Amino acid sequence: MFCGKKWGAQDLATNIRDVAKAAGVSVATVSKVLNGYTTVNANTKERVLQFVKELQFRPNSAARSLVGRRSMTIGIFLTAGLAHPFFIQILSGMEQALKSKGYDLIYLAQLSWNKEYSFVRHCQSRNVEGVVVFGFQHEDMNFNELVESGIPALFIDLDVREKRAGFISSDNQEAVKRVVDYLVGLNHRHISFISGNKDSYASRYRLEGYRAGLADAELPYRDDYVAEGDYTREAGYDAMNRLLALSEPPTAVVCCSDMSAVGAMEAIAEAGLSVPEDISIVGFDDIEIASLVRPALTTVRQDRITIGRKSIELLDELINDSELRPTETIVPTEFIIRDSCGPAKPKP
Amino acid sequence: MFCGKKWGAQDLATNIRDVAKAAGVSVATVSKVLNGYTTVNANTKERVLQFVKELQFRPNSAARSLVGRRSMTIGIFLTAGLAHPFFIQILSGMEQALKSKGYDLIYLAQLSWNKEYSFVRHCQSRNVEGVVVFGFQHEDMNFNELVESGIPALFIDLDVREKRAGFISSDNQEAVKRVVDYLVGLNHRHISFISGNKDSYASRYRLEGYRAGLADAELPYRDDYVAEGDYTREAGYDAMNRLLALSEPPTAVVCCSDMSAVGAMEAIAEAGLSVPEDISIVGFDDIEIASLVRPALTTVRQDRITIGRKSIELLDELINDSELRPTETIVPTEFIIRDSCGPAKPKP
DNA sequence: TTGTACGCGTTATCAA
DNA sequence: TTGATAACGCGTACAA
Prior knowledge:
Distance between the termini of chain A: 79 Å
Strand order of the largest sheet of chain A: 2-1-3-4-5-11
Number of helices of chain A: 13
Structural class of chain A: alpha/beta
Order of helices and strands of chain A: HHHHEHEHEHEEHEHEHEHEHEHEE
Helix content of chain A: 40-55%
Oligomer: homodimer
Radius of gyration of chain A: 26 Å
Mean pLDDT of chain A: 90
Largest interface: A-B, 72 and 72 residues
Low-confidence stretches of chain A: 1-11
């Protein structure tokens, strides 16, 4: 059976009254000291702080958020679950900022998609001050409810410009344009694109970059050179097979993720061709696998640490300034050249 | 500036009083309905539940935990940070159990190692009901404080048997013994072991398994065949180079992680040797990379989903039964045979 | 400069 | 079977 709120035999958690008693002042004074009021005598302040330290006092956050002060809690809202290979790197970036801003991170595990459940209500019941959202589309359930709730929200990889909501993403368009420029410089004239989920924000802008790169080189845009994927290895494999079946297959392929690039390379190997001699491949993300695979993958590195850190910093601004206009932040990428690209084969 | 606790123009969060008013009953009655008391009329119960649904009422968890009821919050305590490649898979397993038990997960980001900071106080101030701990050693700071605090704790990969604390891990010893048996079956007589951090719990028991396997095959244990690593690729690379420098290098190597196996394979390739023709390699974990690398890595799969799920289930038991004796749980592993092992070369 | 007293939203006790 | 009310720990007007 559950045996009360505390864990030990007796309640050991010191509260503000213990500190007040020890320091010989009132609880109000202790509270003022802790909340940075200047209307308190330097000596008493000193004394109070000393006992706070001695008794290892930490204000109970439940009581604190109950009286209407801050809960110092940020929620994360993920469609893909915590273990998403890309998101997890973002988390490390978030850690630093969370720490320096003093937030703890709460993962609302109860998330479910049935009608009874409301993510917003869940946040409210937890007194969450703001949320980071990842893996979302505009059409998804709960989206409007979230945006309209006025809970400060920061979206990763989804362009949301609403009151109290901002977003952050890599410079997808510029990144892919640079990749195409690079391939053009290697004399490629038949360049394909394997997309991510077709209406995901990131994939859309990467496609734009692809078109811009072609336009810049005065190369025609061909529908059949764009193969739809969904960021996965399997989708990359299938997409590549479709491209190989064309009467005039591409000599270079830009993929929307490293995993789909790996899948594409497998398809190429199965077709008896080789990378980069026959076909050049470029990935996206620079996950660990990119440098492990053979040939090592030329790819676009997303600065996930910065994305994570900035997410929290921006969310913190959104929380602290209710009048802030919608913010959007684009994080530069880095082009990592390894071994999966080579000069285009001269026409036979 | 910060503008009050709520996000919108007015406070929209319905509370228990709103529900009571709407249903024409007292707050006490609503509370009883919500907490499963049977001393409430079926009709009123019905009415109350209807308005709870209609108003989308969710009890404020801060208020709830303040009055001494449960906070439904579980903390995680990691030395390695959230992005640890192994831990992240465990998280997915935890998700399911958290959801079904009704917990949310809080990551105490403020974690720091200075003297002022007390992890236990942090948990108490957040009313955390229990913690999952990963990446810890017995000697680590805060360890005693945590164990003595009486906060229910579940350790992953660390053998802790204390009041209110239990642990879970893979069957490390058995797993490695089976690997050695397998290699012996391939006629290997010179089998090395690349360890993880030498005093980590997992590495210690894997070493035991290695010794047991050798003993079983009546093969001598040689100190110089055990190379210390720390689970990383770099350490695996270095360790392998030390093994290759022996006057009688091993023909098979058991590694404590897939990443160190990858490092070892790189060292072997650089030495002009090949896997598995010259040297057989076995990894541990079966992370995604294991199947991507060439040759695909033969390895031990840890059932991370089960480890994660059981962590929460066990912790839940620890939370709900203060008299529970220390629990320990060993999760079976699976031996995954791929392409990195072959028969031992006959002596020249 | 300090202290008293009320309220935050909920649960538990006890009287009705 | 229901309702009034005292906690829970803290922040903050307002009084001293």
